[in-house]
Design a protein that fits this description.
Layout lengths: L2 H12 L3 H7 L6 H9 L7 H11 L3 H7 L7 H14 L3 H21 L1
Helix pairs in contact: 2-3
Length: about 110
């Protein structure tokens, strides 16, 4: 199954229009962009878009990331993150912000090297 097919399937299961999904993401994902995703015109959406859609659809974020062609951490990485995040009592949004920040820092380090 492609990312486009999965996004279309998830929306159909909820019975929502493209505009309703836009509203549910608080306009973080426009209905026109969602249409492009579902039609396959956009092949590699940002992880932030996939995160928003996973939350709205109550779907697997790693599953959407994998369908979009991104590398998904192995279970051993997920366990380590889970233990660390549980110890800090972070919300899902805070966890994502921490992961985004770490990724940003790694990119900056690579630029300097």
């Amino acid at each position: 199954m492609s990312l486009a097919e999965e996004l279309k399937r998830l929306r159909a299961m909820k019975g929502w229009s493209l505009r309703q999904v836009e509203d549910k993401t608080q306009k973080k994902v426009s209905n026109s962009y969602l249409y492009q995703l579902e039609s396959g015109a956009v092949k590699e959406p940002s992880p932030n878009v996939l995160f928003e859609l996973a939350n709205v659809y109550d779907a697997s974020y790693p599953g959407l990331m994998k369908l979009a062609g991104y590398m998904v951490p192995t279970k051993s990485h997920q366990k380590t993150e889970s233990v660390a995040f549980n110890a800090l009592n972070l919300t899902r949004e805070e966890e994502q912000e921490v992961l985004d920040f770490v990724q940003f820092q790694r990119q900056q380090r690579k630029k300097r090297e």
